Amino acid sequence: MTPPREHGAAAAHVADRIREAIIRGEYPPGARIRQEELALESGASRVPVREALRMLEAEGLVTLVANTGAWVSSLSLGECQEIYRVRERVEPLLLRMSGPSLDEPTLQRLDELAAQMADSDDSETFLELDRSFHLLTYTGTQTVVLTELVHRLWNRTQAYRRVYTGLMDARARRTVHDEHRLIVGALRDHDIDAAESLLAGHIRRTRRQLASHPEVFAAREESS
């Protein structure tokens, strides 16, 4: 019999793989997740696979139906809006806690990420760089719950940001890039009030623009 500790380590490993696949879009909202295939791909037994899916269910990424199976969780427009409203409040707070401790090499890396986003026309590249950019701004502090909460909120909405990113026009992209540069500038100037305000507006604008594209959510609901 496999020791519980080994089951736990295997479950965490499988959960990491599924989580990353969901974030990358390999498993879109509403997609069926088959435990047998996961067990074969990961070389794990079904016990850690089931535990991994329960871990992801607790994060809101997976929906488990008793005696039926597992699916990638979907969000309605209203649910996505609620998550974004939470992000509007908690991420500026996290930035306020983190910003004063960001050193010059980190600020330079943020400048590089902002420039790379502006130079790329590929949606997947933008999503990866945008995620790296924002999460890097939060690395100047250690928190008990806030950092983990922000990561989970990002993960819950990633699929819808992916679809929306493909719908952005040139004007919307320019606005996003300008906001990134302004946030870095405020952090470099130690103007945390401005950085906090810019970030809140950045998230709010995305929420409102997502609301103007209800078809993004209707398409997901129809496929689930």
From TrEMBL:
The residue ranges of the HTH gntR-type domain are: 8-75
Sorted UniProt keywords: DNA-binding, Transcription, Transcription regulation
Q: Which Gene3D superfamilies match?
A: GntR ligand-binding domain-like, Winged helix-like DNA-binding domain superfamily/Winged helix DNA-binding domain
Q: Which SUPFAM superfamilies match?
A: GntR ligand-binding domain-like, Winged helix' DNA-binding domain
In terms of Pfam families, this protein maps to:
FCD, GntR
Please give the superkingdom of this protein's source.
Bacteria
**PANTHER family registered for this protein in UniProt:** GLUCONATE OPERON TRANSCRIPTIONAL REPRESSOR, TRANSCRIPTIONAL REGULATOR, GNTR FAMILY
Name of the protein described by the UniProt record = GntR family transcriptional regulator
Which species is the source of this protein? Microcella humidisoli
